Amino acid sequence: MILEVIHRTSYRYDTPVHLGYSEARLLPRDTTHQRVVHAELRADPPPVDTTDRLDHLGNRVTYLRFADPHDRITVTARSVVLTATGADRPDGSPRPLDGPGLLPSRDAGTWEAAVVPALAGDPAIADAALPSPLVEWDEDVVAYAAPSFPAGRPLHDAVLELTRRIHRDFRYRPGATTIATSVGHVLERGEGVCQDFAHLAVACLRALGLPARYVSGYVETDPPPGQARLEGADASHAWFAVHAPGAGWLHLDPTNDQVVDERYVVLGWGRDYADVTPLKGVVFNDGGAQHLEVRVDVVRHAAVPILDGEP
Amino acid sequence: MDLAAYPTTPAWDELVEHGRARASLGGFARFLDGVDLADLRVRQDAAEAAIRAMGVSFTVYADGGNIDRSWPFDVLPRVITAEAWAPVAAGLAQRLRALNHFLADVYGPQKILADGVVPPELVLSSPNYRPECLGMDLSHGVWAHICGTDLVRGADGAFFVLEDNLRVPSGVAYMLENRLITKRVFPELFRDLEILPVDDYPQRLHGLLSSLSPRPGHQPVIVVLTPGIHNAAYFEHATLAQLMGVELAEGSDLVVDADDIVHLRTVGGLRRVDVIYRRIDDLFLDPEVFHPDSTLGVPGLMRAWRAGNVAIANAPGAGVADDKVVYSYVPDMVRYYLGEEPAVDNVPTYRGDTDLRWILGHIDELVVKPANESGGYGVVVGPHASAAELEACRARLRADPRGHVAQPVIPISTAPTLTPGDPVAVAPRHVDLRPFVLSGADISVTTGGLTRVALREGSLIVNSSQGGGSKDTWILDPTV
Amino acid sequence: MLLCRLADAIFWAGRYLERTEGTARIVATHTDLFLDLPKAAGLTWAPLLAVAGVAEDFDAHHLVRSEEDVVRFLLADPQNPGALLSSLALARENVRRTRALFPREAWEILTVLHHDAEEARHGTASRSTRQAWLASVLASCQQLAGTLEGAMIDDEARAFFRLGQCIERADMTTRVLDVRAGMLLDAEPAISPYADVLWTGVLRAVGADHAYRRRVSARVKGSEVLAFLLRDPSFPRSVAHCLGTIDGLAATLPPSVEVTLAVAQATRLVEEASVRSLVWDGLHEYVDDVQQAVHGIHDALDRSYFRRGLPVTRAEPMAEAISA
């Protein structure tokens, strides 16, 4: 599938900003299931300095520095990504390691087998089983997760059910939470948005010793006729991935109770939202309020669209 | 002074043995046996007057504000023979060498984690681990340039390492001030005895910082970066800057431009900065990378550091090695990196994550410490704690096992200390020792260090923020 | 090499110390004036509020314009950030931040002054204790000035300290002129029997009576007082003398066109004014202009030195959008 993503973030400031630094994680990375055909980041006013790097998780990071007084900053990321599910792969190559894709078959093993043994293992995986600033848990989280994880149950069944339960038990309500809402609060209130549900799922999994990642990305905005439009299409989206030994990272979207597939574009992943914040930074001005507006469009194309500025 | 009545405790006493001054201390032992208590009181008063006049103070965070307090000081020095000190100093150098290997490894190839010598989770889950620092290649391979190692002596007088302080260790200015005070108060002893000097520390530190400059060949511009006047250790920051003849800067004094170079804002314009001796915690260093709302730090500092345009001592991320759980693996690091046996031992340490049950069962015999607090905050001494305190401590342990360690209560050594009030008396009080180790192209250890003393009878907590005081530390060559 | 932050703090140390001294002097001389004049002269305490520029603040706290309230507000009221004790505390705080730049005795004098003044906080109501207290504050300020004169290294730091003093001093002199002289000119016929005493009071408010008599005449005359305080180059608290000193100090600093222009602008305003026409019309507007020009020098110093290299004012995290 060919998906084009346009993600525009606009800030308006009551008093002019003299200087601003920001870090964007707005350009998608290649995974086993997506290939980035085109990705560009533009900002207005044009930043006086911009550099690209990969962070320690391999996500693409763009650093932007703004100088000269200005009262608006607009950052627009545009990318075109080819996405595929395992089934689409013409050569029938191995199952995904780092990207949305197929679930392992039910005989891939029990959920207990996916638990990271204490004090051992690949640091990159072990890291994902540890608490992080926005994903901490208590007995309530453990109690919420428990019913889906009876002894000996296949990981496949357990995580699918957890995904379904979160979708069923929690109300999707934009504005109910903020970027810093804790997992405990979401559990108590019973409502939130995709970021909260992803954090909750990650907390449940880690509480059981399972390595889980928070994934930042997009989902197709306008589905083909006859299919339901998925929540989270107007903003950047988020879901989780769990590590299954031998199979890789399985991506599931608790907000929509979906297995992540070719309708999804991955931006990057980390321990939680704070590792993959799409756009963050600091500005310097004389005080006064700031106004934020975000618009995201994900459009399906039949062929790679002609892109401005491409040779 | 008649020491026959000086109380005997199970702990090692630094100066007294069998009701007499330790003979090994030579001339100082003769002084101690001969001096009378009234004379000591006069000298104590003189010392306190000197402290007020010199304005030596520290700041205590208390409810509702900061209070400047005079530095509590006991006039009787803690004395160690040069012979006893030499192997300890060598052991500290060995330890810091291993710790720096460890830091370069953790932020580089991570071999020690891959080899399973130190559990990866332990390092990667440490709140002091900074993935932002991965891949940095630092001059001399050194991350922790200045280390304050806390030592205690057990019942037989052997030294143990209690903890390593690799973030922003403080106290060295007080070590220097203490020496100035005892020189004023005991001038005749400095004439008659061979007391090894400590006052070359600022020059050594300056030399170390200069050697880190990314622009060899230029006269380096060095600053001490302080959180400001309300910080508990501000006095020390100001003193060190003054003694080294460098600027004492706050975050707002520094700017980083698009060229990734750190500049000092002076009335004559911007001046390039080469080396920053920072006394600000990692998370406050750079709002671009860490706490976005930090007003203490310098936006862009990490960029400049990553670009190799400025040296920061200690390097960001060095604190991952002074976590009290990671501490328990330092002897393994010494063996792993250096192929040597540790010359100074650790205090036996139980880890909350692996030994929780045992700790909970023996909590009334143990000292329980949070893994990542400094200044003695949150430390519970089992045998001295009330039932309610123990229960609260158990709850904290259960909630966050990884965040705690426990150690047996060591009968840490005592030293004769003047007690307040009349009549004048001298009583044993527990002491520790914080030597400062500098690591650049080579390693040097202060002669002695800062001796802290728990001024309350029986107390084991020596931190100045918790009612501790200090003594001067003399490394003495009694053969002279 | 002087850090911008330290230059800023030491400048303010100079301003606040001068303000402490100036406030002590205006309150002390006004109290004296009451002792010298009969009730019939109709003297009130309100002008003091105007000189200190705190009349609105005062009224906002619903205080009565009685001697007791006015004096307490000006000297010791913690609600008044411009009170003498507040200025003194701020002076000390700024000296504390820049301690290494001052001779040690200066810190000790200031600390003693601060503690003594705090202890006397509640003794402002009685005229006799008040006068004794203010006299001791003035004496300590002078002692401090003398210590700095004799022991402070003559470098950039001292230049900024003195710039702060001179700007505050020029500011205080213009305010005395504006309020006190302006009032006298407006009310000339009514107060004529007491004109001498009142004009002398104006001189005393800036410690100028002795200097005026030596320099101008024993007979105190309104327009001459005005001219003297505004532009006699030999009297240290005249506006012209302050500006001359500022000019000289600025020349020792790294060059700043902005500061040079600001000083020149203020100096021109003072030199070119016709005092005779001011007496008859527009003193208030004119003094306003001079004050603006003096503030302009401060702003120029601020931009050229204190905020040098700092294009920023306040750091604020950018809002982050929730992933939805």
Task: Give a short summary of the structure.
The complex is a heterotrimer of chains A (311), B (480) and C (324). Chain A is an alpha+beta fold.
Shape of chain A, please? globular
Largest interface: A-C, 38 and 14 residues
**Tally of individual domains of chain A:** 2
By helix and strand content of chain B, what is the structural category?
alpha+beta
What's the number of helices of chain A?
A: 5
Alpha carbon gyration radius of chain B: 23 Å
Report Rg of chain A.
20 Å
> Low-confidence segments of chain A, ≥5 residues, pLDDT <50?
87-102
The CATH class of the largest domain in chain A is: Alpha Beta
Q: How far is it from the N-terminal to the C-terminal residue of chain B, by CA?
A: 24 Å
So what's the overall shape of chain B? globular
In the predicted model, the low-confidence regions of chain B spanning at least 5 consecutive residues are: 61-67
Instruction: State the total count of DSSP E strands of chain A.
Output: 14
What average pLDDT do the residues of chain B reach? 89
Q: What percent of the residues of chain A sit in helical stretches (DSSP H or I)?
A: 10-25%
Oligomer: heterotrimer
- Report the end-to-end length of chain A measured between terminal Cα atoms: 23 Å
Please indicate the percent range of residues of chain B in DSSP E strands (runs of 2 or more): 15-25%
Question: How would you explain this protein's 3D organization?
Answer:
The complex is a heterotrimer of chains A (311), B (480) and C (324). With 311 residues, chain A is an alpha+beta fold. Chain A is built from five helices and 14 strands. In chain A, strands 1, 2, 3, 4, 5, 13 and 14 form a seven-stranded antiparallel sheet that branches. Chain A has a five-stranded antiparallel sheet with strand order 11-10-9-8-12, covered by helices on one side. A two-stranded parallel ribbon of chain A has the order 6-7. In chain A, a hairpin with a 3-residue loop joins strand 9 and strand 10. Chain B is of the alpha+beta class and 480 residues long. Chain B has two domains: 299 residues, no CATH class; 61 residues, Dna Ligase, domain 1 (2-Layer Sandwich), CATH 3.30.1490. Helices cover 29% and strands 25% of the residues of chain B. Chain C is mainly alpha-helical and 324 residues long. Chain C has two domains: 151 residues, no CATH class; 157 residues, no CATH class. The chains are: A alpha+beta (311), B alpha+beta (480), C mainly alpha (324).
